Amino acid sequence: MSLQPRTLFQKIWDKHLVVQEPHSPAILYVDLHLIHEVTSPQAFTGLRNRNLQVRRPDRTLATMDHSIPTTPLSLPMADTQAAAQLEQLAKNCAEFDIELFDMDSPWRGIVHVIGPELGRTQPGMTIVCGDSHTSTHGALGALAFGIGTSEVEHVLASQCLLQEKPKTFEVRVDGTLREGISAKDVILALIAKIGTAGGTGHVFEYTGTAIRTLSIEERMTVCNMSIEGGARAGMVGPDDSTFEYLANREYAPKGLEWEYALEAWRKLPTDSGAVYDRSITLNANDLEPMITFGTNPGMGIPITKCVPDPSQVGNADTRQSLENALTYMGLQPGQKLLGQPIDVVFIGSCTNGRISDLRLAADILRGHKVAENVRMLVVPGSQKVKQQAESEGLDRIFSTAGAEWREAGCSMCIAMNSDKVDPGQYAVSTSNRNFEGRQGKGGRTFLASPLTAAAAAVRGEISDVRTML
Amino acid sequence: MAQFTQVTSRVIPLPNRNVDTDQIIPARFLKVTDKSGLGEALFSDWRYNADGSEKSDFVLNHKHHQGAQILLAGDNFGCGSSREHAPWALTSWGFRSVISTSFADIFHNNALKNGLLPVIVNKEIHQSLFDLVEEIPTVALTIDLASQSITLPDGDALKFPIDKFSKNCLLSGIDQLGYIMSHDAKISTYETS
Ligand code: SF4
Q: How far is the CA of A334 from the centre of ligand 1 (A)?
């Protein structure tokens, strides 16, 4: 019996390894496969073409999130192409006997919000989805990969994924977050430090006191953007907060099964003495609210700092990408972002569309109005989040302030429906990607936390939320 | 699965670093239920003006680049969204291979499954290829998978790495799902254990 200390990643990997032949990727068993309308249709076509079945419909779960409208559900869908894609998902799920949370389901929502919320996501699991932010589920101590559509087909047919074994990367966050600084600022600071390719080939494990004190929802925000740092997955060792979060959720084990599960889950955290391939340490005490200024999530700065000046950059490639980014963003080298006028504020997405995010934003908006000329959209991450928010009266705080309160979905994070930032407009967004045109063709995105986004909505310009607390 | 053995072609240089899959194919083109025709939307926001006409200064629109099958890309190509529509759009336009110093993991995986060969070269070779294409815009390179080499017009051959499994799959067009399914008995044993 080997007693070599192992990381959380290694334990889950070992447990799910079905086959490892020399010079081949591992065949890894998948406990939970989440699917949605956008990246699954061609996979089902592949299945049909090969005359294959879905191996484990019971381990597969579907939702509608990416292209759905967030306007009242009673309205017919104007986008016929999106409607046809949703229709196709419903048809595929019916034919292959897969559970689907459709438009009318009270459990529908963004795939990475509903998995944990319903207790489908559990510690020690392997989870995949045809979506890069599947890393979110790692917040509960699962190993969760985003995959392509060919791999969706592989998993549907075989319940397995071919995967080269990733390396491990410990991201240690010591210290304590100060007031006004949130999980989003932690992850934006990490990506600003290591760049969008910093974690390529690795799985992040977030450790340290600052991570331990984060709520499970906050850990999800951190794990969610692991992919933005290039990592294949991000995870946090499960602890009492994890178990408390999961207890009594719809799909969580109950009774004696819960006791057995707990016993197994408590063995998952990384053993002392286990070695990571790489490590980095951040100090939470040093963090400020973060905001991006450029066109990838690595282009982030503390909110009080100035936009970098490309002429000060030695490396020609870096200088060029910085210049391109500033041109697209319409920003001047060396300018301050504080005081920058904005047009749109988006609160939502699988990064920051959970109830705790909405509470943070509502706290800032309470008793205030959204600034004139600013459009603010608040889109809950799931219908359950929406119901919870409404039961707490958050919807009224948003509506009274002049924000639009919407149905759940991905919305302006990806702009596949009509929720878009217009060309040239500036948006402060709690989502995860500031790529050119991500929130609408020609739209310009500043990524930030729900606190910073809400502060911008009230002031009509980029603001330091700490002056409003 | 699509096969890849060798390609000889002109090269389109796109030095931008961190090209994300939202640029390769914007999300509004993802509402399809099949894979065909996505080449039209490749690099859409960089390629077309608001009125739908082509932007004459974008590399893909240059006359001498039509029909080229090799993309010479900047570092960390294909980051961001996991959409396999990105390699579908690239292959649908006609690309067979992308050369860069690095690729984002999911894009790299997706490309291999679609017969689009990701060729990883070091910084020096990367720069020398950009220099070469700038000097001779119509230069043709040969990328040969079996020998894992890029051959320059003067006959020089530059080696590139690729894992054995992907190489074999691409050379013989072997389907990766077929490989997994060949271990069906082991999967069943795993499920019952
Ligand atoms: S909210 Fe955005 S990032 Fe998250 S799953 Fe939806 S589109 Fe993807």
A: 32
